[in-house]
Amino acid sequence: MKEKFALLCAAFSLLAGCTGPIAESVGEPAQASPFTVAAAEPIRELQQMKSITSTPAGVYLTENMVSNRNTILYYIEADTAFMHPLCGDTACSHNSESCPAWFPDGKNVFLLADGETLYVAQADYDQRQRSNARETDEFPLTIWACSLDGQTRTQIFSQSIRQPVETQGKQDYPMPAGSLYYDGSYFYADLINYFTDEEIFIRIDPVTGQYEPVQHPGEAAEQAIEGSSYGYIQGVTGGYLVLCCYTKQGDIANCWVSADGSTVFRIDQEIQGSSAYGSDALYWLNTQETGSTQIMRLAPGEQEPQLYGELQELTARPYDEEDWRLSSTDPFRYAPYMLELDCLDNVIVTDYGGQEAQSWLCLPGGKTMPCALHTYRYTSEDTSLGTLAAAGDKLLTALRTEVYSPFIIDYSGEPSLENSYLWQYAFISREDYENQTPGYQLVQRAD
Question: pLDDT tens digit string along 177-193?
Fold first, then answer.
């Protein structure tokens, strides 16, 4: 079963309501925009919608309001480092459906900036999981085309996907599985019935507002890899869906598949070390007999991998099945080194072989340096927890979290004390980041 795409987890309590309805069609804004915005690069190949997207002028992201489990859509301006709810009404307090930045409980929000348009998708995963769910509940998916300044939005799709699957004498309906995509012309949604694991892949026409089931990319992968069974979609690389398949021998056979299933590139490389899929290629680690570790790169359609970089400094050995068992008792001795990608697709390799984790930033061209501005551990206020998005020549990072414990009303209607985490965001210039020079500009939140 697929993992649901996790929203950026944070909390932000807002008490009062919006003062008026938002515009439901694109038109002239009623007032001057309070935001500085700029057009994004036009979408020309398949991309995955996520809970964060950016333009040269700023970053759009969502945060959960733990106090009432609703979601707010924010815009962070790169020039001012100011974080606003994406609502063009300066008198709005952002806590009702009349606000374009507010999304109710149970709704997961996905974003993608395309030119002068911000696409926002809202999918309800949780109806079946609620204690008051009914057998007639459906799973609606809604998509809007919004102005980048939050002044207007147009609903371009809103339907409950009704492809019933017969289960024990009754009909169940699929829900979004956490995967939404857009290629500049069509939206695609990956749906799953959580009771039967039946999967459906649909294509949505934003012009007509209609959808149709199409061949699931997993079927194309199974046809291309003889004797395999489709596992799950891992993401998007170079305009192709990344699929994980399993062979009869229990091996993993990954491949890239076009959204229409017409093109399949099998990944025949043996990948034993840590790996990550970027926006344009697959990256992984190869340990050499000499003790060095190579970073390899393979793009869709390529037959042979390219050497991206090489590290001599790693002390930990590759992770294997035995390590999974031993790491629970001695996490430092049996810890792996891990490869991941920042928001620019630069490679970061973290070595857990010592008492303190050490990371290296590996830039194109073989330049490698200790990555002092990146860690998984909350060690200091001046250590980045990772880059999130690029806005012009600045990168948005998360520096740390602050813990607070608001009282909330849980699903049973009872008050509950729940710990929550509020991210502290900051911008850093690309130059400072690539030189590993701390020079953060803290993001200020709207009160």
Answer: 558 899 999 999 887 66
CA distances from 50 to 77, 154, 401 (A): 19, 19, 21
Q: What is the DSSP letter of 152?
A: B
Can you tell me the distance from the alpha carbon of 144 to that of 239, in angstroms, rounded to the nearest whole number? 22
Contact 399, 424 (CB under 8 A): yes
Per-residue pLDDT reduced to its tens digit, 88-125: 777 887 888 788 888 876 567 899 999 999 999 987 65
- What letter would DSSP give residue 129? G
Both tokens assigned to 63: 């945060």
* Locus of tokens 């999974």: 324
SS3 annotation, the chain: CCCCCCCCCCCCCCCCCCCCCCECCCCCCCCCCCCCCCCCCCCCCCEECECEEEECCEEEEEEEECCCCEEEEEEEECCCCEEEECCCCCCCCCCCCCCCCEECCCEEEEEEEECCEEEEEEEECCHHHCCCCCCCCCCEEEEEEEECCCCEEEEEEEEECCCCEEECCEEECCEEEEEEEECCCCEEEEEECCCCCCEEEEEEECCCCEEEEECCHHHHHHHHCCCEEEEEEEEEECCEEEEEEEECCCCEEEEEECCCCCCEEECCCCCCCCEEECCCCEEEEEECCCCCEEEEEECCCCCCCEEEEEECCCCCCCCCHHHHHHCCCCCCCCCCEEEEECCCCCEEEEECCCCCCEEEEECCCCCEEECCCCCCCCCCCCCCCCEEEEECCEEEEEEEEEEECCEEECCCCCEEECCEEEEEEEEEEHHHHHCCCCCCEECEECC
- Strand 140-147 to 117-124 pairing: antiparallel
3-state secondary structure 91-128: CCCCCCCCCCCEECCCEEEEEEEECCEEEEEEEECCHH
DSSP state of 220: H
Which residue carries 């993992």 as its tokens?
Answer: 3
